[in-house]
Every structure is written in structure tokens, then in C-alpha cells.
Amino acid sequence: MIYISRKEHFNAAHKLYNPQWTPEKNAEVFGPCANENWHGHNFELIVTVKGHPDPETGFVVDLKRLSTLIRREVIDKLDHKNLNLDVDFMQGKLASCETLTLEIWKILNAQIPIITKYGTLHSLRLYETPRNYVEYFGE
Q: N or C of the chain: less Cβ packing under 10 Å?
């Protein structure tokens, strides 16, 4: 099994806030991430596809096609946006990195088979900061 990864970058703002809770409970649980005026991050997204190489090209997935797919379906929708307000697939959801990663998975998992018959989505790694990241391998 071969694992091939592509890293992309985006900047976005968000607020961690549960509308079912009081402002005090939100502040207690989320701390400064519940700031009513939002806060931002320089996110790094690593998308890994696994599979066996195409005997004609040697590719599990063409990285140019993977990059185009990630940029069109994910990065262009997230970059320089407010995750809570501007991103259609995050509407009505808590804008945590965990939730964001799950939503990105849904999008890419449905699209990867269109660009390769030799690979499948293996994992996503979303860095919120250089020290904090979420990793997801599907259900």
C-alpha cells in the first residue's frame, strides 16, 4: 500500500461558542476561543490518499489533480473566511477543528473517486496551530 499526501494552507477565523450555553459557560469551556469578536488561525491541511499505483502512470493519484480538487472544493471555500458565518458546509455546526475535519472528509471522500480509480481517501490532518492538530481516518 502506498500513501501519498498533499499539504494545503488557508487562513480563517472562527469562534467556539455553544448557543445553548450562557456566555459565562462558553467562556469557562472555550476560554479566549469564545471571544465574541472571533479569532483566526493559519491552518495547514494534509490530505493522504492510499492505494496501489496505476500501472500506466505509476501514480496512486495525480498530485496536480488532487491539489486542484482540494483547492476547488475546500480551500477556496475556507480561505480568508469566517468559519461560523461564511462557510456553507459549517452552517449550524460548532466551528471546532474536529467538526471542520469531519466536514472536509465528507467533501473529499465523495470526490477522490472522480480523480483516481487507484486510490481512496486515507486520512486528513488539520493543523490549527503548529502544536495542535486533528487527525481523522474515516469511520
A: C
